[in-house]
Structures are given as structure tokens and as C-alpha cells.
Design brief:
With 210 residues, the protein is of the alpha+beta class. The protein has helices at 17-32, 37-55, 57-95, 99-103, 135-142, 149-175, and strands at 6-7, 14-15, 106-107, 116-131, 180-192, 195-209.
């Protein structure tokens, strides 16, 4: 026994190197991979019984205390894993949304659809697009000629920005579980002399045909 190879946190008890190797290579990965407290309790009991039987009661007692000391760490690892899985799932669902899904998505500036009933209000959704350098100066230059080419060019760019913001808002609605958006409106924010933000806003809802 190579005593003193490892000490349990908040304890003066020394542990042999074979237990340290066991912890690093087998026990830590197993307990960190648990997805629930119930699973952790089960794995914990199995490990303590299995390795305690092989290495004696002193190791069994140590392993029990060690695993208990790791529970806060395990919960942090589990939470991070859940967040990563949720992010991955969201990215996967987002990649599956097609242009056809967006184009056929129901939306209105009003607060209901004729022939449909709202079954659930999911969440407020938004889509943002920023128009960069030169757009406001184009607008100022074309203000005196509202029907000129420059004015039309600016209007077209604003229309494209609105459509892009709308698509982003619809994507957010789909990901939130809704199948329609109500109360759609656009807002505009001036960030600087050459930047303007276009936002599409609405409420994602789940509707059902009457």
C-alpha cells in the first residue's frame, strides 16, 4: 500500500495509489456520466460494493466518502452537459427548418386567425437585422427625390431587411413550439450615423383549426 498518495478533501486520511488510479480511471467517469440523482445513488452503491469487496472495508469506507464529496461537482458537470445537449438539440432543430416551412408559416399583425382558436401562448419572439454603412446617407440624399432611383433602392433594402428579420422571428417561433405568430410589428433603432436596426416582433402561439 502506497499510503499518502491521495487525501480526501477536508480529511487527513491517506489513500493508497491503487485507489487513486481506480478513482481516476474508473469511478470518476462513471459517476460523472450519471444523468440523475437516482442513477448516481444506484451507481454509487454498485461501485462501493464492488470495489470495497475487492480492496477491503477501509477502501470501501473511503470510496463512499469520496463519492459523497464529489456530488456538488457531479451536479455542475450534469448541468453543463444538459445545457450542451439542449444547445445541440436546438441547433439540430434549427438546421431542419426549411425555407418552405418559413414561407408557409402563418403570421398576422392582428391577434387571431379566422377559423382558428389559440390553444397556447408560447412566448414573445423577435428577429433582428442591422443595416450597415451608407443606408442613412442614401436616405438623406434621396429624400428630395422620393420617386428617384436612390429612394427606390433604399426602400428595396429596407424591404429585404424586414423580410430577413421576419424569417428570423419565425424561426424563433418554430423553435419555441408555436405554429403561428400574432401581433407582428416592426421597429427601427438608429445605432449610429450609418447603422440602423430592423426588428420584427410578435407572439408565438399554438393554434388549432375550429
Amino acid at each position: 500500500m502506497d499510503a499518502g498518495a491521495y487525501r480526501i478533501p477536508d480529511s487527513s486520511e491517506a489513500v493508497c495509489s491503487s485507489c487513486v488510479k481506480l478513482l481516476e480511471q474508473e469511478i470518476d467517469p462513471k459517476i460523472q456520466a450519471t444523468d440523475s440523482d437516482e442513477e448516481l445513488v444506484y451507481i454509487k452503491s454498485q461501485l462501493i460494493e464492488q470495489y470495497g469487496r475487492l480492496n477491503g472495508p477501509s477502501c470501501q469506507a473511503y470510496l463512499e466518502r469520496y463519492i459523497a464529496s464529489q456530488e456538488p461537482v457531479i451536479k455542475k458537470i450534469r448541468k453543463k452537459r444538459e445545457e450542451e445537449n439542449e444547445k445541440k438539440s436546438l441547433e439540430e432543430r434549427n438546421s431542419q427548418i426549411t425555407e418552405e416551412d418559413i414561407n408557409n408559416y402563418m403570421s398576422t399583425s392582428g391577434f387571431n386567425f379566422e377559423g382558428y382558436v389559440i390553444k397556447k401562448y408560447c412566448r414573445i419572439v423577435n428577429g433582428y437585422v442591422v443595416l450597415e454603412t451608407g443606408f442613412l446617407s442614401e436616405f438623406a440624399a434621396s429624400f428630395n427625390d422620393m420617386f428617384g432611383e436612390e429612394s427606390n433602392a433604399f426602400a428595396n433594402k429596407m424591404q429585404i431587411a424586414q423580410e430577413a428579420a421576419m424569417k428570423k422571428m419565425i424561426r424563433q417561433s418554430i423553435l419555441s413550439g408555436g405554429n403561428a405568430v400574432i401581433g407582428v410589428n416592426f421597429s427601427y433603432v438608429k445605432f449610429s450615423s450609418n447603422m440602423i436596426g430592423v426588428a420584427a416582433n410578435g407572439t408565438s402561439v399554438m393554434i388549432e383549426q375550429v
